[in-house]
């Protein structure tokens, strides 16, 4: 019963945070999406050849239970599926990260717009949050909350 209540709470939190999780930016280029979120959000790009990619699905599952932690750290999660990317967004992604969008990658973009971490395997949320929590900007944010 407690597990069911937790799952309901998690689902409710996800529904309240529509800006936390974005699908592939179809109306806006990846470049523009990152520019508009600079200094506002930390962006986690989840890149995969298709939505059926096992690592992609595993990463999404790992993050699904962490909605409040993601929100606390001002995350925007963007799915980039190679089979749905525009040529311009594909090229921008390659230039920005040095990675091909033809296989799974998780890429952390800091609020300053710089690439902070890249992984070709799903990232454990605690590792992702540990990386962010060491950043000077995040430390300042944590001081202000106390």
UniProtKB/TrEMBL annotation:
<feature type="compositionally biased region" description="Basic and acidic residues">
    <location>
        <begin position="135"/>
        <end position="146"/>
    </location>
</feature>
<keyword id="KW-0732">Signal</keyword>
<protein>
    <submittedName>
        <fullName>DUF4174 domain-containing protein</fullName>
    </submittedName>
</protein>
<feature type="domain" description="DUF4174">
    <location>
        <begin position="34"/>
        <end position="141"/>
    </location>
</feature>
<dbReference type="Pfam" id="PF13778">
    <property type="entry name" value="DUF4174"/>
</dbReference>
<feature type="compositionally biased region" description="Basic and acidic residues">
    <location>
        <begin position="115"/>
        <end position="127"/>
    </location>
</feature>
<feature type="region of interest" description="Disordered">
    <location>
        <begin position="115"/>
        <end position="146"/>
    </location>
</feature>
<feature type="signal peptide">
    <location>
        <begin position="1"/>
        <end position="22"/>
    </location>
</feature>
<dbReference type="InterPro" id="IPR025232">
    <property type="entry name" value="DUF4174"/>
</dbReference>
């Amino acid at each position: 019963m407690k597990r069911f209540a937790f799952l309901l709470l998690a689902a409710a939190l996800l529904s309240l945070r529509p800006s936390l999780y974005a699908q592939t930016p179809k109306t806006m280029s990846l470049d523009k999406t990152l520019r508009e979120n600079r200094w506002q959000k930390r962006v986690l790009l989840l890149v995969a050849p298709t939505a059926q990619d096992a690592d992609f699905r595993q990463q999404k599952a790992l993050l699904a239970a962490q909605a409040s932690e993601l929100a606390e750290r001002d995350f925007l999660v963007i799915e980039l599926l190679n089979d749905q990317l525009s040529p311009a967004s594909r090229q921008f992604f390659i230039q920005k990260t040095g990675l091909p969008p033809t296989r799974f990658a998780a890429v952390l973009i800091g609020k300053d717009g710089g690439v902070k971490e890249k992984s070709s395997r799903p990232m454990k949320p605690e590792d992702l949050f540990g990386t962010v929590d060491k950043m000077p900007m995040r430390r300042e944010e944590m001081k202000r909350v106390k």
